[in-house]
Amino acid sequence: NEYKSYLRNVILFPMSEYLSSKSSSSSSRFESIRSGTWSNGVRIVSYKAGAATTIRTKEDKDDIKQHLEQACGTHKIPRISVYMTTVKDDHNTSWFPTNTKQKFRFHAFVIFELSSSSQANDKKYMSLEKDATGITVQVSLTEDDVLTKFGGKEREGPHFEEISDKSDKSTEDLIGFFLKEDFNKSRYEVAKGNHCKTFANDVFNFLANSACVPGIWCSRVCIISYKGGIPETHWTGENEDNIKDKFRIACHSENLKITKVSLLRVPLEGSFLPISSNSKEQSSNDNEKADDEPMDSSKVARVSFLQKQGVTYHAYVVMECCTNSGEKKWISLEKDTQNISIQVSSFERDILLKFDGEFRKGTAKEVISDKARSDATTEKLMKFFNDKHFNKNCYSLVKGDHCKKFTKDIFDFISEERTYDYNARETAAKGAMFGLIGLLGIAAAGAAVVAAVGKAKENKLRDKKKRE
């Protein structure tokens, strides 16, 4: 399966991309959108008692600003959410190249809750999204209008909340950000990464207080510190100094000595699908009971996609560290489709059994373990991390930049003068098998030679007797 995945993702997929871009018929589809469909004007849909009224602004900023202010008013944005809805094969995606449709099984859009500072009950709801025709803004007094409808019609397929976060910004901030970034002039271009998900990512990360959109790569590092089994999550900035400072704080400002490093793997479901939050207090022995509980549909979708690409497990690295006073600490590093996460705890079970505070599904299996070299420290690890710019390298199966590659690089840096191949055990097993077959072949050949020599001697002796 790994060889098939490598063949499909590293050779066949890029080749098909190249050939489709060379084809005159595919090239026009692959560029951005069909000629004449994109509009630099913003479509604003207002709902009153379920009825939709649509206007299209001009493309100049003054006209867009005037219409958006009229539709949205001056409101605070206390909460923002990213929603995903499934895209059917017959959805308006004929302009997608065939080999990119798999990437767009979900359409992303942003939902805002708007509240007035003067009137507590004066609430509005707003959606913002990007598709092949342009930018669409929907405003209503009812959340269902903007959540379940698009342009006055029901959305296709089920929808689910991907992530939600608080916000301290206002509609004025949002309109200013929208006009500054010229989103209405940024065409929907799959090849350049300009699509619904990146647009939702940009808007969400501007408005949200702390979080980032799962499944869309974020250069910030998530650092999770456990105190008494309770996680505290902190997001770093994108710059190297901020990452180093936040990590040092998680390590209580100490330069820890790394005494042991281990590579572990867990079934793919265990990396993205934690058990229900109601089961946080359960011990790891109760995981079987929680396996049947419903999972977040967005995480299920991401796992399903990776499984179709031949990915079967998630890899992460765990380090046993020692403080200057001799106290032990454990640190884990791992990379998923969203970002890089670092966990720090005084108890090994927090690192092995949990991810982002939730119990992992499935049992972690140690692939290889090794004593670290004597000069390996957390300070040197962070310097290596920043020098390699790991937080800037998004999760890519096609480029071979994934959890296995990341953990291998970390393990090889920390461990003493050794490199590790994830296929080493399989290679060793195959080598032993072929070696055994070779030995059997040599033994058989040797037996044949001995038999032939014996036969020749018998024939020679018989001929001698005949002559006598």
Blueprint (SSEs and pairs):
Blueprint (H helix, E strand, L loop, with lengths): L1 H21 L1 H8 L11 E6 L2 E6 L4 H12 L3 E11 L19 E10 L7 E9 L2 E7 L2 H6 E2 L2 E2 L4 E8 L4 H11 L14 H12 L14 E6 L2 E6 L4 H11 L6 E11 H5 L14 H4 L6 H12 L4 E10 L5 E8 L4 E6 L2 H6 E2 L2 E2 L5 E7 L6 H11 L14 H12 L9 H44 L1
Parallel strand pairs: 1-6, 10-15
Antiparallel strand pairs: 1-2, 3-4, 3-9, 4-5, 5-6, 7-8, 10-11, 12-13, 12-18, 13-14, 14-15, 16-17
Compact overview of the structure:
By secondary structure, the protein is an alpha+beta fold.
Task: Give keywords.
alpha+beta; seven-stranded mixed beta sheet; elongated
Distance between the terminal alpha carbons, to the nearest Å?
Answer: 69 Å
Q: Give the overall silhouette.
A: elongated
Oligomer: single chain
Q: With helices defined by DSSP (H or I, 4 residues minimum), what is the helix count? A: 14
User: What's the total count of β strands?
Assistant: 18
Strand content bin: 25-35%
The helicity comes to 25-40%
The structural class is: alpha+beta
Walkthrough of the structure:
The protein has helices at 2-22, 24-31, 61-72, 143-148, 171-181, 196-207, 240-250, 268-272, 287-290, 297-308, 348-353, 378-388, 403-414, 424-467, and strands at 43-48, 51-56, 76-86, 106-115, 123-131, 134-140, 149-150, 153-154, 159-166, 222-227, 230-235, 257-267, 313-322, 328-335, 340-345, 354-355, 358-359, 365-371. Strands 2-1-6-5-4-3-9 form a 7-stranded mixed beta sheet. Strands 11-10-15-14-13-12-18 form a 7-stranded mixed beta sheet. A hairpin with a 7-residue loop joins β4 and β5. The model is unreliable at 5-36, 89-103 and 272-297 (pLDDT under 50). By secondary structure, the protein is α+β, with helices and mostly antiparallel strands. It is elongated, with a radius of gyration of 29 Å.
